[in-house]
Batch of 2 targets.
Target 1
Amino acid sequence: MMIDRRLIQEIDWILLGLILLQSLVGVVFIYSSSHVLPGAYHVRQLIWIGISLLVLILVLVIDYKFFVSLSVYFYGLMVVLLAATLGFARLVAGTKSWITLGLMQLQPSELAKIVMILIFARFFAEYKRPYLTTRVTLWALLVAGVPLLLIIAQPDLGTAMTFVAVIGGAFILAGLRRKAIVLFVLAALLVGVGGWTIALKDYQKKRVTTLINPAGDPRGSGYQVIQSKIAIGSGGFAGKGFLKGSQSQLRFLPARHTDFIFSVIGEETGFIGVFIVIVLYFALLARMFLSVNKARDRAGIYIIFTASLLIAFQFLVNILMIIGLFPVVGITLPFLSYGGSSLLASYVACGLVLNVKMRRFANV
Amino acid sequence: MPEDRIYEDLTIVRRRANVVFWILAALVFFALAFYWKIQILEHQKYAGMAEANRIRMRVLAAPRGLIRDRKGVILADNRASFKVSLIRENIKDQAASYAAITRLLGIDEPTLRSRIDLHKDLQLFEPIVIVDGLGPDDVAPIESRRLEFPELVVETEPQRYYPQGTLAAHVLGYLQEQTPEEIRARPERKIRVGEMVGKTGVERQYDDILRGEDGAVYEVVDSLGRVQGEKAHSNPIQGQDVLLTIDQRLQAEAEKALEGREGVIIALDAGTGGILALASSPTYDPNRFITRFTPDEWRLLMNDALSPLENRAIRGLYAPGSIFKLVMSLGGLGFGFVTPETSVYCSGSTEIYGAVRHCWFAPGHGSMDLANAIKNSCNIYFYTLGRRMGIEKIAEAASLLGLGKATGVDLIGEKEGLVPSEEWKMKTLKTPWYPGETISVAIGQGQLQVTPLQIAAMTALIARRGAPAHPHLLKDAVAPGPADPAAPQPFNKTTFEAIIAGMWKSVNDGGTGQGARVADFDVCGKTGSTQTMSRESAARLAQAGRETKTHSWFSGFAPRDGSRIVVTVLVEFGGGGGATAAPVAGRIFEMFRQELQEK
């Protein structure tokens, strides 16, 4: 399938530019936070950006409708993959460290996010009623529930939460009645309370209690949040300067090139840096979200909305998490945090948005 | 409108998407406001916390438990020593700093760098130990120039100290720093980086008892590493003491007797099996190794051809020589091949399986019964007995007396030795057993291999008239098995008395063991001299004017009835057992007798 000249003209170059800009800012601060470690993380991240960009171009070449039509097969594949990962992960859990295990888990569950975007686009493409009926709601819950449960069982709380956000977004778009909202809230509460007492592991519980009182355990799980807040707060207005953050450079900050990359930015560039990155990020999100007004069909709107929500949710949770406004759930900052599979998933999501936007004229 | 027909009405969906976006936008604004609050409004507070936020954990090393002898004499102690650590963060000029350190502390720069490299993953403000085991005089130049070297920290730590020097080195063992891999392999032991743990001997065997529990201080340090306060404090708990069966005076005497020779002396408490003395020579000073650094001396010891680090008592494998005649006698009587009265005529040589075999006493011993055969260590008698018994019965007797298997002493690395048999030879050498080999085994040669401790344990079993003794070092150890175990079948008390009669004669009636005689102490024993090379090579060397010496054995106990002590002596290349080992054993018996009288 060759790409038309007109299609290339229709690519949202501004959005693509913003994505690349954020990625490069990420590389700079990955360098700052990891240059003392062996492994050249910033170089590896640059390679991943290149790979992700190539995949994004591949995504653009093919009409999103083709992806949507194939989404059922993707879905089947995803469920099998998640189940296989679960079996495998269980097997190695005793011997491998959580980092290696995390990498193995991350791969399929990151992919699953993209598949969910596509499957919901297909599911709701022909749904023209103003509100969701009970029957459709239950079907949608079933479709979303299977991979969600598999991810919860891993257990990967961060990814599961992102999943819930994407699913919830799709439901909101399809139209939820007030009655249904109340029901969902009640169900969520029930699952929450039940999950707390039954399913949550001790370390996960600790993260929630830490949110409420981080000083309660300053050397344990509250440590990360306290150190992160100190890093950001001590950055002040103009920051301590590139490579000069004592919190980051002295290794007080944990996971500082992955989940806590924004703390490094906050410490070394101060509020100015935080402001610029957040505003640019907001511009990126706005550019993505507002593309819904350009989509030519319902499937396109669902794709744009859920893909944008995926990025926006992770962004918000991450920047709130590192200043103690959200539990530490292991959600990365898309485009900025170090990590190949997360970067790839974010690029593919953006690729889908660009794809829908450039094919907004039906006759092309 | 014509558009409506091409595009469906998507306004509701679009509107919802826009609403969600603006809610998210509000949240982003809220987040931004919160960053403003933390970074601008509360900046002072967090800046202060960042400055003070340097919690340094300092380990308070727990002293190891003491090791004492049976009378409470301290064999392994602790003493305060100084260690110097480097805080990389405080280095102003690395080259100048390293140069000063090498000058002040007398270590070379490659050593310093490799030490720092080993711990490069630690945080920059965390101290790395670069020298330890220093005395107060060694650290004085650093202490006096504290301001000049903010990167150096001097601290005290308890360090192992062996007040008796080389005494009982092989019993005590030594300590070594564990490698990061070893620490990771056993996380439940909670060994801290840089901790010295038992590598061999009692230090290793009872490491879990001797190791205490480390304490820790959490200190808040400022950006210059100055301590600003304490966050938490837990005191170290010293490890428990270990009381050994060793008798320090006897041990010292044993070591003195072996000075300048290679060999082993073992003294067992005949009543309990407790090891009174265990000397293995040459030896080493464990004080030399209580450092995290490998001195050249260590390498020298490791590569020394005489292997001073090896505990010969449990790891040295020797042919038992004529000591094995005790096994032959017990087996011969027990299995009914001979009676104490059976006599064999020794003319100095005999022909067995077509080969002429010689007794060690060329003129011949004449007519020999069992007791006299033991007394004179007559080869001809035991050749004859060996031919009657055959290798299988010999092996069975040896096995019943504890040869060919570990004694189970509480020391790591004990060897099992070897008692050859037809089956063993077929399995390992893939050749059948030749009857001639049985004749060699009958006088303790051939493929037979024993450790000195096995011989000591066997001698104790004889002294106890068949009740097995379990050699051990831990004084409070509960002896495994019944308190007064029965003799292994088919031996009984009279079998043992018959053999003991021979052993008594050997020492007290002009036999080969007379050098071990102690007045009024009724020593019973057996000598042994083992060939360390073939008869032909020995003859060739003798022709060349070179003296070839055999390993010299003596093993015995005293007194004959109600025996108190078992002594086994092995002197490598000591010559005849009667000439060398027996007098050495006599010294130990004499010393023990004096100690008994002092009580």
Note: The longest helix of chain A spans residues 64-93.
Target 2
Amino acid sequence: MTLAGWITMALSLTFVWVLTFWCFRRVLKSPQKEKAPPGFGP
Amino acid sequence: MSIGHKDEWGTRLGVILAVAGSAVGLGNFLRFPGLAAQNGGGAFLIPYFTALLLLGIPIGWAEWTIGRYGGKKGFHSAPAIMGVVMRSGTGRYWGIIGVAIPLVVSYYYVFIEAWTFGYFLKYLAGGIGVDVAAPVSEQTATAASFFAAFTGAGADGALFTGESRLALVSWLVVFAINVYFVFRGLSKGIERFCSYAMPAMAVCALIVLARVLTLGTPDPSHPDQSVLNGLGYMWNPNYSKLGDAQTWLAAAGQIFFSLSVGFGIIINYASYLKPDDDVALSSLTASATNELFEVGFGGLITLTAAFVFLGLAGTNAAVSGGSFTLGFVALPVVFAHMGAVGNLVGALWFFMLFLAAITSSLSMYQPAVATLKEAYGWHHGKATAVVAVIGTIGAGLTLWYTRGGAYLSTVDFWAGTLLIYLLAAVQIIAFGWVFGIDRGWQELHQGASIQVPPVFRFVMKYVAPAYLLAIFAAFCVQNLGPSLRAAWADAGSRAGILSIAATLVFLFVVVRAGERRWRAAGLDLDDRQAHHGRRPTGHAHGRHVP
């Protein structure tokens, strides 16, 4: 494994892990919208 | 409003996991690493991530947006939704492709899924008979011969002769599981299954990854066959490959198929969202999850394990043999070398592949079920039963025409590759140029949990369509000639072409019937209300068809 290989692997893994973690954190933090009661709306 | 039966997702996380489950498949663990190793190793990740940002994520946003917009109008089938988005009957006929692709792909995909399940059972029962004391070439030959017999590659009808019964039984079990969960419905079936299967798949992947990364140098007589050199095989960059157009084409193709964009599934899944449900973050999260499995697990496990036990020459041979050779021939040899835990790791590996496959196949039936319900007003059970019958006929052809994989590869090329390019191109052009980028951008951000960077407005209108059309053209130049010649070459490929044609004709008839029914019900089929300045308000359009 060359230094360039280590760097490529580290950057790629960091990108996918951070992106996934950030996305799920945002999803779980944002409140779920409540359903409108029947007959309410449009 | 909904035409007939009301379906909806239970939770936001549920729909994300269902879409991610649809995207994560065998290609994440088998195709991606081989492709990367052949196209510059770590350097391949440059065109790969470029395609993710300029092609995969933007088209994903477009599909989610289009799907939810169609859902607001009360439609869940790709033909009706494409008709609304393109404001014409032409759009509805393009949309037929969005139902045909997943249905036709399911004909053979469930069979491949059955291989993973059958191998899982074999490893629980002690492996596939690879003798670790024999020379590696003999071990590979044993694994290859088992795979050929298991899949009936020797002759058409071989699966029905007795020796390969396990494959047939595996298919029956797997198909029944699929039908059961589709029958249970969107929330109680597909969503619930994916909510358990996706974390379970991640746990399996982590366990297998931990075992692979701690293999060290198992054979002292081959000190070069170490985990570090295995990682180097996959990740050491060869930048000279970046000057090769083939590398960029391969990377774009991998992103495209891995994310399941242009498949017709996202458009259906997103149509069950509520009008103000987020699509921007959900789409991004599903894509990110797919990338985690592909780069984070697939990029570390498969080739590293192969290299440690098979060495450079063996891994090169496995990679050049293609995804199936890598997964079902080379890795069984690797598991045989792992000693006492080899069968357990093998079972975990194939169970993980099975979960990856079933979360994808479950999504393949839903678009057809939704289309039948919408077109004829059938209840969910009846539509599922009809789709199950069609699936059985298609799978029957796959199970019979096994010689040399001709049926499978023909259907995979024409429906599972060419039509996907076509549908994705139609969708992204429809989004940016027919629906309009202004409306599309506004629609994408309705209820959004994130603000998409403005540069993606330009990307979605110009870059993604141009990029997609360029790789589509290059793909056609490279493959269309040989595939046209092979399309009628033998019984298997002829059956493949005819099954695609029959499915398209059937869906055409269904959509024609649907059109009449939707018009009779006074639905806004061509999006005229929004076109004339009135903002669509989802349920306000609601009209139930009795």
Note: The CA atoms of residues 7 and 30 of chain A lie 34 Å apart.
